[in-house]
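My hope is that you will study the record closing this message with an eye to the fold:
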Amino acid sequence: MGQIALEGMEFFAFHGYYDEEQKIGNKYGVDLYIDTDLHAAGASDKLQETVNYEVLYRVVAEEMQAPARLLEHLGHRVLDRVLAEFPYIHGARVSVSKFNPPLGGICHRARITLERRQS
């Protein structure tokens, strides 16, 4: 068992509860952690024996382009896609951050974290 992580992914996207947020956009961060068996890839040194990082990034990037009102919804969409694309992984955790959220004061980022296990 092991973990693959894509940390610090950044996107400019048009999410937000308020219509204005969806018009002007904002910077978002995503951290993704995949729990999977890394033994075969470690032994064989073959890409087809593991989760392809490029595919993981593409999945996240595609979901980040589709507007959402809530970070919670966005995180669930990312998990849904990752688990659908890689049914053999054991689970995944995603954190989605909105930089400088419009809260009326100083806040560097708002973040949600979701985790799901495959059944």
About this structure: The chain has a mean pLDDT of 95.
